[in-house]
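hey so i finally got around to running the thing on that chain from the lab meeting. sorry it took forever, my laptop kept dying and i had to restart like 3 times. anyway pasting the input first so we r on the same page abt which one it is
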Amino acid sequence: MGKDPLRLAIHVGVYVALFYATAFLFSGLLVWLGGYLTGVTGATLLSAVFANWLALRIYEDRHLVEIGLWLNRSSAENLVLGLAGGAGTAALVLVPALLVGAAHLTPTPADHPAVGTIIFVSILLAAGSVGEELFFRGYGFQELLAAVGPWATVVPVGIVFALLHGSNPGATWLSTANTAGFGILFGYAYLRSHDLWLPIGLHCGWNFTLPLFGVNVSGLRMKVTGYEMSWTAGNLWSGGEYGPEASILTSAVLVALFIYLRKAPIRRQASPLTDPPAGSEVCEAAPSSPS
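ok and heres what got predicted. didnt touch it at all, straight out
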């Protein structure tokens, strides 16, 4: 708290500029080498890692791991809780629709799923999720959090997160609203854990589960299982071309995800950037009570 506003603006501005400059330099090359999806996810991860690493070195004289990437038991437990929450939320959107006949799984003979394909898609989804969480909940987010407080940071960053998904194929006002809800909940997850493993787990769990049901992820189709989910209900329920993230069902389960994050036995860790006074030692914290 109390950081000079001009200094804060410079730090966050440079961080964002580093991300976009790196993406500009490498995205074209990565798209050319690996195709659109590989290039975009690879550029996001590379740019996020570089922007966080350099901003931490310039302004804090700290290492990348100190952004909330500790490798300890608390991190592992938070990652598992995140994966379970993300996957469970996705299943809560899709499984009831299959059970009541509002949708059914249809074979797609043109697709030829293989173990290699599943592994490749999983790596892409992980890279995209980790890259987005590093950028949106990394150095800039944590600097703002320490300076202006939780909700003055979490809500605006969640809205920006949604707006930057607005150019995805099939995006609608509802997909933007739901994506803002996810962005805010990912920020809340960081508030609960003070590490990046919980929001990374939530993001990955959601993104991994949708392709297993043959639905689009933020307007992008991942051909994994040889099946697709065909809906008899309208786009308000299915999300249309964008996928379930543009569905009113997702709007409802976002409430369930908030309750899950509030009640789950999340391990709160010490953060040198967001816990005043900033410390140099980070150790495992005891389970925090819901707050």
